[in-house]
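Dear U.,

Please find below the material for section 3 of the report. The protein was modelled together with zinc ion; I have listed the sequence and SMILES used, followed by the predicted complex structure.
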Amino acid sequence: MKIAVDFHIHTSLSPCADEDMTPNNIINMSMLKGLDAIGITDHNSAQNCKACLDVAKSKGIIVIPGMELQTKEEVHLICLFKGIDEVLSLQQLVYDQLPEKENNPKVFGRQLVFNEKDEAIGENKRMLITSTGLSLNEVFYEVEKREGIIIPAHVDRSSYSLIGTLGFLPEQLEIKTLEISRRCNINTFLEKYKYLKKHKFIQSSDAHRLGDILERENFIEVEEKTIDGIFRALR
Ligand SMILES: [Zn+2]
Ligand SMILES: [Zn+2]
């Protein structure tokens, strides 16, 4: 069956995201838009994943805990996991590898942590939008170890993307699915990058505002509408 997905959504833990990107607002908007599954992917952190999973429990939408990790090569990778423990274990590793710099909320915005009632229960003071000390190879190894999936983010963009930054797709990396931006035309993109034709592609919103979350416009084919089914489809 085909399900409508958006695997790249930021909460207000990402400094660049609106402060109304709270767990309930995101889940409710995603359901209103008719999505079957979403991914929660803040910059270098997963601190709002648990609240989003808790909100989704009583609703008919699948929430995949994840993170948009920035490698030391300045490449953004969407890392998705089947459970909260796996993503939080990666988060620990990422926090150990983040530079000891503070976020400047006046310039970048606050980094808010919420509970499942949308109450702000904390603010992450570290600078989250920066490169970690983890290399591409290390991130692939660590995510694989936690049975997660990596989808290189917005590969059509010139910066912070695997292809834009490196100029090629490293052969040693196990990559099946690539993400292109919502407004990118896949046919035009593949004209330019013919060697990528064997890959699967998904489009995501990279939403930082509620209105940006995808409508029913990007579909994947799954055997069953579960996290396991989704992971099998992306592999
Ligand atoms: Zn990004
Ligand atoms: Zn993003």
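For the text of the report, you could mention the following: The mean pLDDT is 97.

Regards,
Y.
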